[in-house]
Amino acid sequence: MRRSLVPLAVAGVLALPAAAQAQGAYFPGSPVDAPADLRTAGDLDLAPDGTGAVAYVKREGGEDRLYVSRFSGGVFQAPARLDASLGGDSAQPAVAAADGGRLIVAFVNKGVLHVVTRGAGAGSYEAPRALGGGASTPSADLGVNGTGYVVWTQPGASAADVRAARQERDGGWSVADRALDVEPARDAGADTGRPKVAVAADGVGTAVWGEAGRVFARKLFRGSISALPQDLTVDRLGDAPGQGADLPDVDVEYDSSFAWVTFRQRVLDGVPRNRLVARRMRGTAFDDAVAVDGLAQGTLGGATTPRVDLNGRGVGLLVGATDNGGQVLGTPIFRDQPRATSGLSPATGAPPQPAPALSENNDGLVAWYQAGTVQARTYRTEPGQEAQPRETVTLSGGPVDPGPGLDAAVDRAFGAVVVWAQGAPGAQTLMYGVHDRTPGSFSGRSDTGWSPLSKLEWREPFELWGPLSYQVFLDGQPLGAPVGERSLALATPPPDGPHTWAVVAKDIRGQTSTTPARRLLVDGTPPQLEVRVQGSRRAGQRLAIRVRAKEPGRAGQASGLRYVRVSPGSGAPARPRRAGRGKAFSTKRFTLRHAYARGTRTLKVTAYDRAGNVAVERLRLRIR
Question: CB of 86 within 8 A of CB of 95?
Fold first, then answer.
């Protein structure tokens, strides 16, 4: 379907400006399920938000049973059996994922096509729903708006037909009232003509299939199918006449007017041989076919197993393999054109079963079988350039079994998953390896000025997979234990004065991202305040109110006084006095004179420093 890093030394991180964040790393060889007799390693899909699932079949109790393991928080969850209410053998699972954990799973059980739905945020799967009898080779996809399609092959009145069903965002299903076939009397969707479907952001689907040795495409709308099926088969490729075509694959942009279809085209190039071609859909028509196998005309050998993965903006990867040596072939799609084809692997003589996955940031990978291992080749994209093949890694940790197949999928940020079967036939473990993106860059949120510090806060790094833990460092030393929240309340404030702090975010696989070191000015001590009243405390006599306010601490260790406010307490307005402007610390002395009327009065003097600390002194004056 359609998605080892060593943590940095903290001391070094805090001593230097924040560096550009690493893009991620590969982590191989984790089990999805215990060893079993795997019939298929499954169909895999990830949604843009990093949720998804793998659907697979294993032999239990004399029956082939369907299981699904959801991918959530960066790991696969406990598998769930979906066909327990049906009994009998299940086969050919197809899964599609959308944001929020939404899934549709299509599969064949005792010859009947069933679908199982899990809603976004739902805690369980719905019961299987039958869509068609005599079914085979289902394909499923979900658009980002939550609209889904399933296409499959089933017997018609006189020949095999390709049928389609649509799932609305509310979960309801409707089966198209007629087949997608061009000629009902011809077999469609059989064998290597099996159908495929892709769904755009507006809920319009595009289906492709093989029929009578030719490849066709047709759009799917709500409650109807297009009246204009397109024959994509190439009648001539260069100077070589075209013959038959099969193995179509399709993916679509967010805009349903644009899609790419790739397929295997038989040509008579001196001798009959297979070529891989691709055609871009624009509206209801298709551009001319382009060869995407890198094979020169007139040379020996051909290509097979075409696959395509496209992101929402039309950047993609076309892959295949040579049919005489099993070399993996990769062709980027950039600015609506296939670019140069690269050989991604050596020719081993065995079918590599390549699977592409490309993210919304234009990075991706191609995974394949090679000499008893699972390999992945990274495609990286520089700004304004097409994706280029980079490093190759081995994901498997032991001998693999290519029989059950292999698949790859990616989320929107190049979090990628590859699944395969590892071990001897009859006792294989369903395994997965990942490319896990490093947590994104982030920063602290402390004030740039002085403050009485009680809590540190920071922004959330970009991370689609799983929870993060945060370790706070103050002056290069860890401050308490790691926390899961984006703030840390301080049980004991740090000493007054300037400090430096930073936060290290760690993901579930130990990858880290560190904030830039940030200056912190701490002043949690209120000013010192002395107030004296001199003079005769008689009505009408002016008293001298002498005030001395001082900000404690050495130079550079305190914020300094801001102002002092005197409230005589006799209805007279308060008298603020600015103090120490522009100085790191200061002492303010002044005298105010005030005459009171007879009675008991409360004199209030308040001193404020630049960190917001406050000192208050109250004197009760009895005026005779």
Answer: no
DSSP track, 441-472: P--B---SSEE---EEEBPPPP--SS--EEEE
In angstroms, the CA 238 to CA 267 distance is 10
Q: In this structure, are residues 458 and 514 in contact, taking their beta carbons and an 8 Å threshold? A: no
Characterize 429-456 residue by residue with b for buried, 16 or more Cβ atoms within 10 angstroms of its Cβ, and e for exposed: bbbbbbbbbbbebbebebeeebbbbeeb
**Which tokens sit at 185?**
């009397």
Q: What's the gap between Cα 48 and its chain centre?
A: 6
DSSP 516-552: PPEEEEE---PPEEEEEEES--STTPEEEEEEEEE--
CATH number for the domain spanning 482: value is 2.60.40.10
Does residue 223 register a pLDDT over 80? no
Angle made by CA atoms 10, 16, 19, in degrees to the nearest 5:
90
* DSSP secondary structure of 171-204: S-EEE-SS---S-TTS-BS-GGG--EEEE-TTS-
In this structure, the answer to whether residues 586 and 610 fall within a common structural domain is: yes
For 298, the token pair is 């007139």
Cα–Cα distance for residue pair 410/128, rounded to 1 Å: 27
Please answer whether residues 328 and 339 qualify as being in contact, where contact means their C-beta atoms are separated by less than 8 angstroms: no
Same domain, 547 and 603: yes
Average pLDDT over residues 299-318: 95
Q: What is the mean pLDDT of the chain?
A: 92
Total-model pTM: 0.88
Reported as a pLDDT band with limits 50, 70 and 90, residue 16 is very low
